[in-house]
Design brief:
It contains 13 helices and 23 strands. By secondary structure, the chain is of the alpha/beta class. Helix 2 packs antiparallel against helix 3 and helix 2 runs parallel beside helix 5.
């Protein structure tokens, strides 16, 4: 078995995405707790932020996990070729290694997992010094005094939360009328209010026209929905408008692999229209989530090895690690109604949860979406502390088609944030106790 990788093993998630950003956000969490120290009865001095230490810690975390992946590959007899692979046929890939050699790899099965990369919009001035993507943001050794973030999706919002906690003046520009546009409208509206109260500025329904450099200050020229021109001055500009699929190269086209809207088309076993050629992860489109890509890769590998395997797309969790966090799984209230379900929604606010109050994190709520006639949980949306950790219980419920009464009757530890899930399920079936 051979793995062809042009950069470091672990891909975007481990090296330039999920893991490094969450390491940064742990520092953000520490600052947030520090600011509450007086409320918690601790007299603290002014916090000193060292960007180089934050980056060094991130590098250690990434290196540790990457070494673990490399060990697992070696342990299982996987040969790693560092270089760029070009598909010659369904049974052969030609690799140009980083050392300049050309290696031909013959295979019985081929799996394409070329992922995605930051999307760079065609904006005048986008290549100026100080205009960065998430890749460069993870390598900074200095915290900017001010930053303009273009894009209010998951990437933009997480960096907005991080930089704001570091003391940076943050302004977020978003073309659509809401932040995290694909998320539940009630959730995003509440998160927007919270982040505004925290001090982050937002300009929605706005389009960036140009970025220029004026006396070592970047000026971002935008127009809002009323075509009013606004100029934002900042030390740095972070472009976070999303990601584009990578790997739809001429060799894939030449092989005859079916491609639709820039993504490789696969069946439910992750096999393309070419027998023996599979694809998984971002390159096949859909939700560009690391855990989904991993699951698709597992299914592709199992089917390539003759093990019948399929994926349940009805229960794909999604999280945004802002402060507070956003987490979702299954159908939203709007999606369920669009699909013809008679919907019953249960909810519970964290301000009524004992553990949340002890943490000093009372903002947000849990929404459970059920089918009214059966009580089956169709999905959930959470805005609140540790929402990403609370979601797995509901993901299991959606996967198995469990009724809300099961989670409502299940004994949860007390005090615990998870009790908010229990209470929301109780509310969905008309049996809420603490609401």
């Amino acid at each position: 078995m051979t793995l062809i990788e042009e950069r470091d093993v672990g891909g975007t998630c481990l090296n330039r995405g999920c893991i490094p950003t969450k390491s940064f956000l742990k520092s953000s969490e520490a600052i947030s707790l520090f600011t509450k120290s007086k409320e918690l009865g601790i007299a603290a001095t002014v916090a000193s932020i060292d960007a180089k230490v934050i980056r060094a810690r991130k590098d250690r975390v990434v290196k540790s996990l990457r070494l673990g992946v490399e060990h697992l590959l070696a342990k299982n007899g996987v040969e790693v070729l560092n270089g760029n692979g070009q598909i010659d046929s369904a049974q052969r890939v030609v690799v140009k290694t980083v050392d300049g050699e050309e290696v031909k790899v013959n295979c019985n099965r081929l799996i394409i997992t070329t992922g995605s990369e930051p999307l760079i919009p065609d904006i005048p001035g986008i290549k100026l010094a100080g205009v960065i993507t998430s890749d460069e943001a993870l390598e900074l050794t200095k915290i900017p005094e001010s930053i303009t973030i273009i894009g209010a999706g998951a990437i933009g919002m997480e960096f907005a939360a991080f930089y704001h906690s570091m003391g940076t003046l943050v302004t977020v520009v978003e073309a659509q009328e809401t932040i995290i546009p694909n998320e539940d409208k009630e959730i995003t509206a509440e998160l927007l209010k919270i982040m505004k109260r925290q001090g982050i500025k937002f300009i929605l329904k706005a389009k960036v026209q140009e970025i220029s450099n004026s006396e070592n200050v970047l000026e971002t020229f935008i127009t809002n929905g009323e075509e009013k021109k606004i100029v934002l001055s900042s030390e740095m500009v972070l472009v976070a408008v999303g990601r584009k699929l990578a790997g739809i190269s001429p060799d894939i086209t030449a092989l005859g692999i079916k491609v639709t809207k820039g993504s490789i088309v696969v069946n439910d076993q992750m096999e393309t229209n070419i027998p023996g050629v599979y694809a998984a992860g971002d390159v096949i489109g859909g939700s560009l989530l690391a855990h989904l890509a991993f699951a698709e890769g597992r299914v592709a590998a199992e089917n390539a090895m003759g093990i019948q395997s399929r994926l349940n797309y009805k229960a794909v969790p999604s999280c945004v690690y802002t402060n507070p966090e956003v987490a979702s799984v299954g159908l939203s209230e709007e999606q369920a109604q669009e699909q013809g379900f008679s919907v019953k929604v249960g909810r519970f606010d964290f301000r009524n949860n004992g553990r949340a109050l002890c943490h000093g994190e009372r903002e947000g709520f849990v929404k459970i979406i059920t089918e009214e006639s059966t009580g089956v949980i169709l999905g959930a949306r959470i805005l609140g502390p540790h929402a990403s950790e609370l979601l797995s219980e509901i993901t299991l419920a959606v996967s198995l088609g469990i009724k809300a009464e099961v989670l409502a009757d299940m004994i949860h530890p007390h005090p615990a944030l998870a009790e908010a899930v229990m209470e929301a399920c109780g509310d969905a079936i008309g049996r809420a106790i603490h609401k």
